[in-house]
């Protein structure tokens, strides 16, 4: 859908009751709308929110295309790291200060895949740590945890099953931002929607949660 002054906006329809706008990697704008919503209603909604969209686009970094080559810089846990790729007896990835040491068994091995799986395992450990920290405090009982690539969202919560899903790209953010997303999703087990009560609870658990949310979009996204 084309919106004057904004450009192309991708429309995603889901079983939801409200519309949401997301600005993703490469300044890509998309709106999630109820399945029964008409195109005219979606267009009016986007037009009304045009100032917010443009302001958000200005703060959103350009897309970065990574090659996963020796010497390339990436963002890990909010800090710059450098990849060091070399041949080895096995496929492995380790962190040494600001250096990510990657060994590959053959030239056909995907460095990207090794780094991605290593990042997924690291993020899972961090997420589990924060869930253990907060679940008891908040009095909630989360279910299974999934880490996957997500285009515009940082996490999701199935309030029926307690299953939590987190965006792999969170591994590029610092610990405070990851913690904020974990608390956000756990908070949905207490309040389903983004209601006044939801935000009051968030302010109780994490007083600076709004600041943490702003930081989330400041660095380029890698895994979507």
Automatic annotation (TrEMBL):
Domain of life: Bacteria
Ranges of residues in domain YgjP-like metallopeptidase: 18-218
Segment forming the signal sequence: none
Gene3D superfamilies, A to Z: Metalloproteases ('zincins'), catalytic domain
One Gene Ontology term of the molecular function aspect: hydrolase activity
Pfam families, A to Z: YgjP-like
Alphabetical keyword list: Hydrolase
Name the record gives this protein: Metal-dependent hydrolase
């Amino acid at each position: 859908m084309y919106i004057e002054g904004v450009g192309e906006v991708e429309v995603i329809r889901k079983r939801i009751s409200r519309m949401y706008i997301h600005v993703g990697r490469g300044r890509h704008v998309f709106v999630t709308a109820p399945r029964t919503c008409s195109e005219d209603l979606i267009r009016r909604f986007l037009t009304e929110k045009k100032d917010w969209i443009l302001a958000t686009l200005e703060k959103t970094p350009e897309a970065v295309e990574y090659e996963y080559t020796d010497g390339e810089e990436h963002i890990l846990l909010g800090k710059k790291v450098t990849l060091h790729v070399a041949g080895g007896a096995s496929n492995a990835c380790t962190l040494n200060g600001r250096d990510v040491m990657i060994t590959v068994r053959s030239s056909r091995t995907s460095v990207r895949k090794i780094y991605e799986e290593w990042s997924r395992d690291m993020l899972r450990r961090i997420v589990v740590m924060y869930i253990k920290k907060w679940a008891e405090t908040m009095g909630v009982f989360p279910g299974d945890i999934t880490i996957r690539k997500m285009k515009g969202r940082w996490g999701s919560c199935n309030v029926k099953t307690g299953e939590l899903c987190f965006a792999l790209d969170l591994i590029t953010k610092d610990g405070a931002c990851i913690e904020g997303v974990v608390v956000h999703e756990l908070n949905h087990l207490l309040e389903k929607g983004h209601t006044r009560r939801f935000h009051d609870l968030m302010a109780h658990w994490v007083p600076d949660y709004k600041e943490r949310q702003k930081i989330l979009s400041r660095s380029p996204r890698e895994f979507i």
